[in-house]
Design brief:
The chain has 321 residues and is α/β, with parallel strands linked by helices. Helix content is 31%, strand content 23%. The protein has an eight-stranded parallel sheet. A three-stranded antiparallel sheet has the order 1-2-3.
């Protein structure tokens, strides 16, 4: 039996990107119950990719009873519906076998992964204040993506003079804006810029020098999408709600390595349950952006552990063993 439950987790404060703001993480929790064993997973339906809670619930409800994890890969397209079911089946398989997911997948034992902490888009004054509060963190990711971003970036750098900075424009810049900003990003010590241009309007990235590495987010989906990014991007940001689960994310990670693309593992704002399988993908990644639980006011009963070492692998009481 596969069931879907809608759940809502309050954020500690309003979270804003160039496409809008949210005060809660609205997620779908999927449970697979078979042979007295329950596996669970989570997804965050995201309108940018054509998903809603209703559409994702309907996709999952249409799956045949007893479908295997292999069957899910062909029954559902890459996206959040397949993600939640795939991860729930991994959890179910691990519990039934009495072995952790990393062993079943043939992976090395996971370790804590250093993360980037995300600063919401806001006024320069508010972003500087938040950067100062978070300046102890080694990596800060800054949400930008408007024509008036330089004062924000300058303010964050003043607030956190020693942190490594990653910029995420969420497709919000034009080629002209990005060309104008790029030298200033380098001057301010930005290490990476993520998806500066809209998907489908990013060909100019292949025609310019890229002294500042550029990561594909909205342009990177599953393994099959990555070859087209060569020459335009240096890094790919894999999110399980885009790949359609852990199974495809591991395949995409291998494909990125084959193509010479560095890896970033990110997330859409959800609970620790959504991050747990992504921690396995993030092992050895150049960048890890799995900080969503740190943005929540409330989380799962047994959340992931975050400390000076980063995000730790999930315990058995959460997911995966």
């Amino acid at each position: 039996m596969i069931t879907v439950t809608r759940e809502r987790f309050a954020l500690a404060q309003t979270f804003t990107i160039s496409r809008g703001s949210k005060t809660h993480a609205d997620v779908l929790t999927v449970r697979v119950v078979r042979d007295g064993v329950t596996g669970w997973g989570e997804c965050v339906p995201y309108p940018r990719y054509g998903d809603t809670q209703d559409s994702v619930t309907a996709q999952i409800a249409a799956l045949p009873e007893g479908i295997s994890r292999a069957g899910v890969q062909t029954a559902l397209n890459p996206g959040s519906a397949r993600n939640a079911v795939d991860c729930a089946l991994w959890d179910w398989e691990a519990k039934r076998a009495g072995r952790p997911v990393w062993q079943l997948a043939g992976l090395p034992a996971p370790k804590p992964v250093r993360i980037a902490y995300t600063l919401s888009l806001d006024t320069p004054e508010a972003m500087q204040a938040e950067a100062a509060k978070q300046a102890f963190r080694p990596i800060l990711k800054i949400k930008l993506g408007t024509p008036d971003d330089m004062p924000r970036l300058e303010a964050v750098r003043r607030g956190a003079p020693k942190s490594v900075l990653i910029i995420d424009a969420n497709e919000g810049w034009t080629p002209e804006v990005y060309t104008d900003l790029a030298p200033h990003l380098l001057r301010l010590g930005v290490a990476l810029v993520e998806q500066p241009l809209p998907q489908g309007a990013d060909d100019m990235l292949a025609d310019i020098a890229r002294p500042l590495p550029v990561a594909a987010d909205e342009s990177a989906h599953d393994a099959a999408s990555l070859a087209a990014l060569q020459g335009k991007y240096d890094v790919v940001n894999l999110k399980l709600d885009k790949t359609g689960g852990l199974t495809e994310a591991l395949a995409a990670r291998a494909e990125a390595a084959r193509l010479g693309l560095r890896l970033m593992v990110g997330c859409i704002v959800g609970s620790s349950l959504a991050m747990a399988p992504a921690v396995l993908v993030a092992q050895g990644a150049a960048y890890c952006d799995l900080d969503a639980p740190l943005l929540l006011r409330e989380d799962r009963a047994t959340p992931l552990i975050y400390d000076a070492d980063g995000v730790h692998p999930a315990t058995a009481s959460l997911w995966g063993s």
